[in-house]
Design goal:
about 475 residues, alpha/beta, Purple Acid Phosphatase, chain A, domain 2, 2 domains, six-stranded mixed β-sheet, about 30% helix, disordered N terminus
Length: about 475
Protein backbone atom coordinates (compact mmCIF):
# COMPACT_ATOMS: atom_id res chain seq x y z
CA UNK A 1 0.00 0.00 0.00
CA UNK A 2 2.84 2.35 0.93
CA UNK A 3 4.59 1.60 -2.36
CA UNK A 4 1.38 2.39 -4.22
CA UNK A 5 1.06 5.72 -2.42
CA UNK A 6 4.68 6.51 -3.17
CA UNK A 7 4.12 5.74 -6.86
CA UNK A 8 1.01 7.94 -6.90
CA UNK A 9 2.86 10.76 -5.15
CA UNK A 10 5.82 10.40 -7.51
CA UNK A 11 3.40 10.44 -10.45
CA UNK A 12 1.75 13.60 -9.20
CA UNK A 13 5.15 15.27 -8.78
CA UNK A 14 6.20 14.26 -12.29
CA UNK A 15 2.88 15.48 -13.66
CA UNK A 16 3.38 18.77 -11.88
CA UNK A 17 6.88 19.12 -13.31
CA UNK A 18 5.56 18.30 -16.77
CA UNK A 19 2.83 20.93 -16.40
CA UNK A 20 5.40 23.52 -15.33
CA UNK A 21 7.64 22.67 -18.30
CA UNK A 22 4.63 22.76 -20.60
CA UNK A 23 3.53 26.11 -19.24
CA UNK A 24 7.03 27.50 -19.71
CA UNK A 25 7.05 26.16 -23.27
CA UNK A 26 3.66 27.68 -24.01
CA UNK A 27 4.79 30.96 -22.48
CA UNK A 28 7.89 30.91 -24.67
CA UNK A 29 5.71 30.41 -27.73
CA UNK A 30 3.28 33.23 -26.86
CA UNK A 31 5.70 36.12 -26.41
CA UNK A 32 5.49 39.31 -28.40
CA UNK A 33 5.86 39.55 -32.17
CA UNK A 34 9.35 39.28 -33.63
CA UNK A 35 10.66 42.18 -35.74
CA UNK A 36 13.20 41.53 -38.48
CA UNK A 37 15.01 44.33 -40.35
CA UNK A 38 16.46 43.47 -43.76
CA UNK A 39 18.91 45.46 -45.88
CA UNK A 40 20.87 44.86 -49.06
CA UNK A 41 24.63 45.04 -49.66
CA UNK A 42 26.84 46.80 -47.12
CA UNK A 43 30.19 47.67 -48.69
CA UNK A 44 31.51 49.57 -45.69
CA UNK A 45 34.89 51.34 -45.52
CA UNK A 46 34.18 54.61 -43.67
CA UNK A 47 32.53 55.72 -40.43
CA UNK A 48 28.73 55.87 -40.51
CA UNK A 49 28.27 56.81 -36.85
CA UNK A 50 29.64 60.35 -37.27
CA UNK A 51 26.47 61.87 -38.74
CA UNK A 52 23.95 63.50 -36.40
CA UNK A 53 21.11 64.45 -38.73
CA UNK A 54 17.91 63.58 -36.77
CA UNK A 55 16.25 61.85 -39.72
CA UNK A 56 19.40 59.78 -40.29
CA UNK A 57 19.55 58.77 -36.62
CA UNK A 58 15.86 57.84 -36.57
CA UNK A 59 16.36 55.73 -39.67
CA UNK A 60 19.08 53.68 -37.99
CA UNK A 61 17.03 53.35 -34.82
CA UNK A 62 14.67 51.11 -36.79
CA UNK A 63 17.58 48.74 -37.34
CA UNK A 64 18.88 49.08 -33.80
CA UNK A 65 15.48 48.36 -32.21
CA UNK A 66 14.73 45.28 -34.32
CA UNK A 67 15.16 41.84 -32.81
CA UNK A 68 17.01 40.69 -35.93
CA UNK A 69 18.90 43.03 -38.25
CA UNK A 70 20.41 41.56 -41.40
CA UNK A 71 22.84 42.81 -44.01
CA UNK A 72 25.19 41.29 -46.56
CA UNK A 73 28.74 42.28 -45.62
CA UNK A 74 30.30 42.72 -49.04
CA UNK A 75 33.75 43.60 -47.80
CA UNK A 76 36.86 42.05 -46.29
CA UNK A 77 38.00 43.25 -42.87
CA UNK A 78 41.76 42.95 -42.46
CA UNK A 79 44.70 45.10 -41.29
CA UNK A 80 46.27 45.83 -44.70
CA UNK A 81 48.92 43.11 -44.39
CA UNK A 82 47.44 40.55 -46.80
CA UNK A 83 48.09 40.55 -50.58
CA UNK A 84 45.15 40.72 -52.93
CA UNK A 85 43.97 37.75 -54.95
CA UNK A 86 44.92 37.66 -58.62
CA UNK A 87 41.24 37.45 -59.54
CA UNK A 88 38.60 39.38 -57.60
CA UNK A 89 34.87 39.96 -57.86
CA UNK A 90 35.18 43.53 -59.09
CA UNK A 91 37.12 46.20 -57.19
CA UNK A 92 38.72 44.47 -54.18
CA UNK A 93 37.50 45.99 -50.95
CA UNK A 94 39.53 46.52 -47.78
CA UNK A 95 37.51 47.38 -44.69
CA UNK A 96 39.37 48.70 -41.62
CA UNK A 97 39.38 46.61 -38.46
CA UNK A 98 37.08 49.14 -36.75
CA UNK A 99 34.36 48.31 -39.30
CA UNK A 100 32.91 45.90 -36.74
CA UNK A 101 32.26 48.84 -34.41
CA UNK A 102 30.28 50.63 -37.11
CA UNK A 103 28.27 47.51 -37.92
CA UNK A 104 27.38 47.16 -34.25
CA UNK A 105 26.53 50.86 -33.99
CA UNK A 106 24.16 50.47 -36.93
CA UNK A 107 22.42 47.66 -35.07
CA UNK A 108 23.32 44.75 -37.33
CA UNK A 109 23.50 41.39 -35.58
CA UNK A 110 23.14 38.91 -38.46
CA UNK A 111 25.46 38.99 -41.48
CA UNK A 112 25.92 37.08 -44.71
CA UNK A 113 29.56 36.75 -45.71
CA UNK A 114 28.78 34.77 -48.87
CA UNK A 115 29.49 36.93 -51.91
CA UNK A 116 31.87 37.50 -54.79
CA UNK A 117 34.12 39.73 -52.65
CA UNK A 118 34.65 37.24 -49.81
CA UNK A 119 37.99 36.09 -51.24
CA UNK A 120 39.23 39.36 -52.74
CA UNK A 121 42.25 38.85 -50.48
CA UNK A 122 42.44 35.10 -50.76
CA UNK A 123 42.01 32.56 -48.01
CA UNK A 124 44.07 34.64 -45.55
CA UNK A 125 41.75 37.58 -46.15
CA UNK A 126 38.69 35.40 -45.63
CA UNK A 127 40.09 34.08 -42.36
CA UNK A 128 40.95 37.60 -41.16
CA UNK A 129 37.42 38.75 -41.97
CA UNK A 130 35.77 35.89 -40.09
CA UNK A 131 38.16 36.30 -37.16
CA UNK A 132 37.23 39.99 -36.87
CA UNK A 133 33.52 39.15 -36.83
CA UNK A 134 34.04 36.37 -34.29
CA UNK A 135 36.04 38.69 -32.01
CA UNK A 136 33.25 41.27 -32.19
CA UNK A 137 30.56 38.69 -31.40
CA UNK A 138 28.74 39.24 -34.69
CA UNK A 139 26.80 36.26 -36.05
CA UNK A 140 27.39 35.32 -39.67
CA UNK A 141 26.98 32.50 -42.17
CA UNK A 142 28.00 31.61 -45.71
CA UNK A 143 31.75 31.04 -45.54
CA UNK A 144 34.16 28.92 -43.54
CA UNK A 145 37.13 26.56 -43.37
CA UNK A 146 35.42 23.95 -45.53
CA UNK A 147 32.09 23.32 -47.23
CA UNK A 148 30.38 21.97 -44.11
CA UNK A 149 31.32 25.08 -42.13
CA UNK A 150 30.39 27.41 -44.99
CA UNK A 151 26.93 25.85 -45.32
CA UNK A 152 26.31 25.62 -41.59
CA UNK A 153 23.71 27.89 -40.02
CA UNK A 154 24.83 30.84 -37.94
CA UNK A 155 22.69 31.08 -34.79
CA UNK A 156 21.55 34.34 -33.19
CA UNK A 157 19.88 34.12 -29.79
CA UNK A 158 17.18 36.73 -29.13
CA UNK A 159 14.44 37.24 -26.56
CA UNK A 160 11.96 36.25 -29.25
CA UNK A 161 13.65 32.93 -29.98
CA UNK A 162 16.72 31.56 -31.68
CA UNK A 163 17.34 32.63 -35.30
CA UNK A 164 19.25 30.55 -37.85
CA UNK A 165 20.90 32.12 -40.91
CA UNK A 166 21.89 30.04 -43.94
CA UNK A 167 23.78 32.08 -46.55
CA UNK A 168 25.09 31.20 -50.00
CA UNK A 169 26.27 32.71 -53.29
CA UNK A 170 25.88 31.88 -56.97
CA UNK A 171 28.00 34.79 -58.24
CA UNK A 172 31.57 33.69 -57.57
CA UNK A 173 34.99 33.80 -59.18
CA UNK A 174 36.31 30.31 -59.94
CA UNK A 175 37.83 28.60 -56.92
CA UNK A 176 36.06 30.74 -54.31
CA UNK A 177 33.61 27.99 -53.38
CA UNK A 178 34.44 25.95 -50.28
CA UNK A 179 35.13 22.25 -50.78
CA UNK A 180 34.34 19.09 -48.85
CA UNK A 181 36.56 17.81 -46.07
CA UNK A 182 37.91 14.34 -46.87
CA UNK A 183 39.44 11.59 -44.73
CA UNK A 184 42.75 12.08 -46.55
CA UNK A 185 42.78 15.83 -47.32
CA UNK A 186 41.41 19.02 -45.70
CA UNK A 187 38.59 20.88 -47.36
CA UNK A 188 39.24 24.24 -49.01
CA UNK A 189 38.09 27.39 -47.19
CA UNK A 190 35.60 29.45 -49.13
CA UNK A 191 31.97 30.34 -49.72
CA UNK A 192 28.87 28.14 -49.66
CA UNK A 193 28.02 27.93 -53.38
CA UNK A 194 24.85 27.45 -55.33
CA UNK A 195 26.13 26.71 -58.80
CA UNK A 196 23.73 26.44 -61.69
CA UNK A 197 23.41 25.14 -65.22
CA UNK A 198 22.35 27.31 -68.14
CA UNK A 199 20.68 25.69 -71.13
CA UNK A 200 20.17 27.65 -74.34
CA UNK A 201 17.62 26.48 -76.87
CA UNK A 202 18.63 27.63 -80.37
CA UNK A 203 17.70 26.70 -83.92
CA UNK A 204 19.56 23.90 -85.69
CA UNK A 205 21.78 26.14 -87.89
CA UNK A 206 22.99 28.01 -84.78
CA UNK A 207 23.72 24.75 -82.99
CA UNK A 208 25.67 23.50 -86.03
CA UNK A 209 27.75 26.69 -86.04
CA UNK A 210 28.48 26.35 -82.32
CA UNK A 211 29.65 22.79 -82.91
CA UNK A 212 32.15 24.08 -85.45
CA UNK A 213 33.40 26.71 -83.01
CA UNK A 214 33.71 24.11 -80.23
CA UNK A 215 35.65 21.80 -82.56
CA UNK A 216 38.29 24.52 -83.08
CA UNK A 217 39.28 24.18 -79.44
CA UNK A 218 40.10 20.50 -79.68
CA UNK A 219 38.95 17.54 -77.67
CA UNK A 220 37.05 18.40 -74.49
CA UNK A 221 37.07 22.17 -75.07
CA UNK A 222 34.41 23.72 -72.81
CA UNK A 223 32.89 20.38 -71.86
CA UNK A 224 33.88 19.77 -68.27
CA UNK A 225 31.92 22.47 -66.41
CA UNK A 226 28.45 21.11 -67.10
CA UNK A 227 28.91 17.39 -66.82
CA UNK A 228 31.24 16.40 -69.67
CA UNK A 229 30.63 15.28 -73.20
CA UNK A 230 26.98 14.88 -74.13
CA UNK A 231 25.86 11.68 -75.82
CA UNK A 232 22.85 13.47 -77.28
CA UNK A 233 23.35 14.46 -80.92
CA UNK A 234 20.98 17.39 -80.47
CA UNK A 235 22.86 18.78 -77.45
CA UNK A 236 26.22 20.52 -77.08
CA UNK A 237 28.14 21.19 -73.84
CA UNK A 238 30.24 24.23 -74.61
CA UNK A 239 31.61 27.34 -72.86
CA UNK A 240 30.04 26.64 -69.46
CA UNK A 241 26.56 26.08 -70.87
CA UNK A 242 24.40 23.52 -72.65
CA UNK A 243 23.01 24.20 -76.12
CA UNK A 244 20.23 22.21 -77.73
CA UNK A 245 18.11 22.52 -80.85
CA UNK A 246 14.54 23.71 -80.65
CA UNK A 247 11.85 25.66 -82.44
CA UNK A 248 11.90 28.63 -80.04
CA UNK A 249 14.93 30.48 -78.69
CA UNK A 250 14.96 30.26 -74.90
CA UNK A 251 17.19 30.24 -71.81
CA UNK A 252 16.67 27.92 -68.86
CA UNK A 253 18.66 27.87 -65.62
CA UNK A 254 18.49 25.33 -62.85
CA UNK A 255 20.40 24.97 -59.58
CA UNK A 256 23.10 22.38 -59.16
CA UNK A 257 21.39 19.41 -57.50
CA UNK A 258 24.18 18.69 -55.01
CA UNK A 259 24.59 22.33 -53.96
CA UNK A 260 20.84 22.72 -53.60
CA UNK A 261 20.51 19.54 -51.55
CA UNK A 262 23.32 20.63 -49.22
CA UNK A 263 21.82 24.08 -48.62
CA UNK A 264 18.33 22.67 -48.10
CA UNK A 265 19.77 20.22 -45.56
CA UNK A 266 21.25 23.19 -43.67
CA UNK A 267 17.94 25.04 -43.78
CA UNK A 268 16.18 21.93 -42.46
CA UNK A 269 18.75 21.68 -39.66
CA UNK A 270 18.28 25.36 -38.83
CA UNK A 271 14.53 24.87 -38.74
CA UNK A 272 14.97 22.05 -36.21
CA UNK A 273 17.49 23.89 -34.05
CA UNK A 274 15.92 27.37 -33.99
CA UNK A 275 12.54 29.08 -33.86
CA UNK A 276 13.20 31.28 -36.90
CA UNK A 277 15.12 30.78 -40.15
CA UNK A 278 16.50 33.40 -42.55
CA UNK A 279 17.99 32.17 -45.84
CA UNK A 280 19.91 34.29 -48.34
CA UNK A 281 21.83 34.14 -51.60
CA UNK A 282 24.20 36.55 -53.32
CA UNK A 283 23.08 36.36 -56.94
CA UNK A 284 23.80 38.93 -59.65
CA UNK A 285 22.20 36.68 -62.25
CA UNK A 286 19.03 37.86 -63.98
CA UNK A 287 16.35 36.34 -66.14
CA UNK A 288 17.48 36.46 -69.77
CA UNK A 289 17.39 40.03 -71.07
CA UNK A 290 15.61 41.36 -67.97
CA UNK A 291 17.71 43.41 -65.56
CA UNK A 292 15.01 43.61 -62.89
CA UNK A 293 14.04 39.93 -62.64
CA UNK A 294 15.94 37.19 -60.81
CA UNK A 295 17.19 34.19 -62.74
CA UNK A 296 14.98 31.13 -62.84
CA UNK A 297 17.27 29.07 -60.59
CA UNK A 298 17.18 31.77 -57.89
CA UNK A 299 13.38 31.62 -57.73
CA UNK A 300 13.54 27.82 -57.56
CA UNK A 301 15.95 27.99 -54.62
CA UNK A 302 13.86 30.60 -52.81
CA UNK A 303 10.74 28.44 -53.04
CA UNK A 304 12.63 25.31 -51.99
CA UNK A 305 14.11 27.16 -49.00
CA UNK A 306 10.70 28.21 -47.71
CA UNK A 307 9.33 24.73 -48.35
CA UNK A 308 12.17 23.47 -46.12
CA UNK A 309 11.29 25.81 -43.25
CA UNK A 310 12.76 29.25 -43.97
CA UNK A 311 10.64 32.14 -42.68
CA UNK A 312 12.39 34.80 -44.78
CA UNK A 313 14.39 34.57 -48.00
CA UNK A 314 16.47 37.49 -49.26
CA UNK A 315 18.56 37.93 -52.41
CA UNK A 316 21.43 40.42 -52.44
CA UNK A 317 24.02 41.34 -55.02
CA UNK A 318 22.24 42.88 -58.03
CA UNK A 319 22.94 46.43 -56.71
CA UNK A 320 19.46 47.59 -57.74
CA UNK A 321 15.99 46.84 -56.42
CA UNK A 322 13.75 43.99 -57.53
CA UNK A 323 10.35 42.65 -56.59
CA UNK A 324 8.89 41.05 -53.46
CA UNK A 325 6.99 37.78 -53.46
CA UNK A 326 4.84 36.36 -50.66
CA UNK A 327 5.18 32.60 -51.09
CA UNK A 328 3.12 30.36 -48.80
CA UNK A 329 2.81 33.26 -46.38
CA UNK A 330 6.56 33.96 -46.24
CA UNK A 331 8.38 36.92 -47.83
CA UNK A 332 10.94 36.56 -50.60
CA UNK A 333 12.89 39.78 -51.17
CA UNK A 334 14.51 39.51 -54.60
CA UNK A 335 16.83 42.49 -54.01
CA UNK A 336 17.00 45.69 -51.98
CA UNK A 337 19.98 47.01 -53.90
CA UNK A 338 22.87 48.64 -52.04
CA UNK A 339 22.51 49.75 -48.43
CA UNK A 340 25.98 51.12 -47.67
CA UNK A 341 28.14 51.53 -50.77
CA UNK A 342 31.01 53.88 -49.98
CA UNK A 343 33.85 52.04 -51.70
CA UNK A 344 34.33 54.71 -54.36
CA UNK A 345 35.86 57.05 -51.79
CA UNK A 346 36.49 54.66 -48.93
CA UNK A 347 38.77 52.01 -50.43
CA UNK A 348 42.33 53.34 -49.95
CA UNK A 349 44.36 50.77 -51.90
CA UNK A 350 44.00 48.12 -54.58
CA UNK A 351 46.17 45.18 -55.70
CA UNK A 352 48.47 45.58 -58.68
CA UNK A 353 46.22 43.53 -61.00
CA UNK A 354 43.53 46.21 -60.80
CA UNK A 355 45.93 48.86 -62.16
CA UNK A 356 47.37 46.52 -64.75
CA UNK A 357 43.92 45.73 -66.07
CA UNK A 358 43.57 49.38 -67.15
CA UNK A 359 47.24 49.81 -68.17
CA UNK A 360 47.83 52.39 -65.46
CA UNK A 361 51.45 53.28 -64.59
CA UNK A 362 53.17 51.92 -61.50
CA UNK A 363 52.89 55.20 -59.56
CA UNK A 364 49.10 55.43 -60.01
CA UNK A 365 46.85 55.58 -56.96
CA UNK A 366 43.26 54.63 -56.21
CA UNK A 367 41.87 58.00 -57.34
CA UNK A 368 43.52 57.50 -60.76
CA UNK A 369 41.83 54.12 -60.99
CA UNK A 370 38.46 55.63 -60.09
CA UNK A 371 38.78 58.33 -62.73
CA UNK A 372 39.62 55.82 -65.44
CA UNK A 373 36.86 53.38 -64.54
CA UNK A 374 34.13 56.03 -64.11
CA UNK A 375 35.26 58.55 -66.76
CA UNK A 376 34.28 61.38 -64.48
CA UNK A 377 31.12 59.63 -63.23
CA UNK A 378 29.73 59.30 -66.73
CA UNK A 379 29.81 55.49 -66.68
CA UNK A 380 29.71 52.76 -64.06
CA UNK A 381 28.06 52.79 -60.64
CA UNK A 382 28.13 56.53 -60.13
CA UNK A 383 26.23 57.16 -63.36
CA UNK A 384 23.54 54.53 -62.78
CA UNK A 385 20.70 55.84 -60.60
CA UNK A 386 19.47 52.31 -59.97
CA UNK A 387 22.48 51.71 -57.74
CA UNK A 388 21.57 54.54 -55.38
CA UNK A 389 17.97 53.78 -54.36
CA UNK A 390 17.13 51.27 -51.66
CA UNK A 391 14.79 50.47 -48.79
CA UNK A 392 14.98 49.09 -45.31
CA UNK A 393 12.42 46.30 -45.04
CA UNK A 394 10.77 45.69 -41.67
CA UNK A 395 9.10 42.31 -41.30
CA UNK A 396 6.88 41.39 -38.37
CA UNK A 397 5.83 37.85 -37.49
CA UNK A 398 3.45 36.73 -34.76
CA UNK A 399 4.76 34.02 -32.38
CA UNK A 400 2.90 31.40 -34.44
CA UNK A 401 4.97 32.37 -37.51
CA UNK A 402 2.20 34.27 -39.26
CA UNK A 403 3.42 37.20 -41.34
CA UNK A 404 1.70 40.26 -39.85
CA UNK A 405 3.39 43.21 -41.53
CA UNK A 406 5.95 44.09 -44.20
CA UNK A 407 6.99 47.73 -44.42
CA UNK A 408 9.47 49.40 -46.78
CA UNK A 409 11.34 52.50 -45.59
CA UNK A 410 12.72 54.15 -48.75
CA UNK A 411 16.24 55.57 -48.69
CA UNK A 412 18.73 57.07 -51.11
CA UNK A 413 22.51 56.83 -51.11
CA UNK A 414 23.19 60.22 -52.66
CA UNK A 415 22.93 59.85 -56.42
CA UNK A 416 24.41 62.95 -58.07
CA UNK A 417 26.52 63.95 -55.07
CA UNK A 418 30.31 63.92 -55.11
CA UNK A 419 32.20 60.68 -54.63
CA UNK A 420 33.03 61.49 -50.99
CA UNK A 421 29.45 62.51 -50.12
CA UNK A 422 27.52 59.55 -51.45
CA UNK A 423 27.30 55.94 -50.37
CA UNK A 424 25.39 56.26 -47.09
CA UNK A 425 21.63 55.66 -46.80
CA UNK A 426 19.50 58.61 -45.83
CA UNK A 427 15.68 58.70 -45.63
CA UNK A 428 14.34 59.56 -49.07
CA UNK A 429 12.58 62.86 -49.72
CA UNK A 430 8.79 62.59 -50.14
CA UNK A 431 9.07 62.64 -53.93
CA UNK A 432 11.95 60.14 -54.02
CA UNK A 433 10.20 57.89 -51.48
CA UNK A 434 7.09 57.75 -53.65
CA UNK A 435 9.19 56.92 -56.72
CA UNK A 436 11.07 54.12 -54.91
CA UNK A 437 7.90 52.56 -53.51
CA UNK A 438 6.22 52.72 -56.90
CA UNK A 439 9.24 50.93 -58.40
CA UNK A 440 8.95 48.17 -55.81
CA UNK A 441 5.21 47.94 -56.49
CA UNK A 442 5.73 47.61 -60.24
CA UNK A 443 8.44 44.97 -59.84
CA UNK A 444 6.35 43.03 -57.30
CA UNK A 445 3.11 43.01 -59.29
CA UNK A 446 4.08 39.93 -61.41
CA UNK A 447 4.23 37.94 -58.16
CA UNK A 448 0.75 39.07 -57.15
CA UNK A 449 2.16 41.33 -54.41
CA UNK A 450 0.45 44.71 -53.91
CA UNK A 451 2.43 47.56 -52.31
CA UNK A 452 0.83 50.87 -51.36
CA UNK A 453 2.50 54.21 -50.63
CA UNK A 454 1.30 55.27 -47.18
CA UNK A 455 2.75 58.19 -45.20
CA UNK A 456 6.09 58.04 -47.00
CA UNK A 457 6.50 54.27 -46.68
CA UNK A 458 5.65 51.19 -48.68
CA UNK A 459 3.06 48.85 -47.15
CA UNK A 460 2.61 45.34 -48.53
CA UNK A 461 -1.06 44.38 -48.71
CA UNK A 462 -0.96 40.98 -47.03
CA UNK A 463 -4.73 40.60 -47.31
CA UNK A 464 -4.31 40.43 -51.10
CA UNK A 465 -2.43 37.14 -50.92
Amino acid sequence: MKNTKRKIARGLVMTGVALIVLSLHVKAQTKDDIHIALTGDSNLHRRISVFDDPAYIEFYKKIQKSDVSFTNLEAVIHPLNIPGAAFAGGTPGISPTWTVDELKWAGFNLLSVANNHSLDYGIDGLRANLHALDAAGLIYAGAGENLAFARAPGYLDTKKGRVALIASASTLTGGEQASQQRPDLPGRPGVAPLRFTTTYTVDQPTLDTLRKVAALGGRGFGEGSVGGRSGNADELHFANAIYKAGDKTAVHTEPDKDDLAGLIASITAGHRQAEWVVASIHAHETEAGKRDEPAEFVVAFAHAAIDAGADVFIVHGPHDIRGIEIYKGKPIIYSLGNFIFDGEAGIPYAPSEIYERYHLPYDSNISDYREVTSKGDTIGYGADKGNWDTALVEVTFSPDHKLKELILDPATLGYGLTRSQRGFPHPASPAAAKEIVESFAKLSAPYGTKIEFVNGRGVVRLDSK
